[in-house]
Fold:
Amino acid sequence: MNILTIQKNGLLIALDGFLLLKGIQKPKGKARKSIEYYQKNLAGLDRKALNCLNSAYKVLHLWGYYDGIEDARVVRIGFDDAYAIIDKIKP
Structure:
């Protein structure tokens, strides 16, 4: 597991806790939730956080993990967006 995967997973775990605190239960019978689950539920709660999620997802998951982008400046943007969400939702 690489650092991009760890960061992305950490962000999703934080979002799980945030959504649960907002009264949104995770779907029954699904071990994994799709990015659409997070986008749909976050859209109704916080559009700025949704924008950060979309950016972090694209940079860390799609570009960083699947496409193998190696530009540290781009990856840093994904980390910054992930941290912005985590900072915003922490108690």
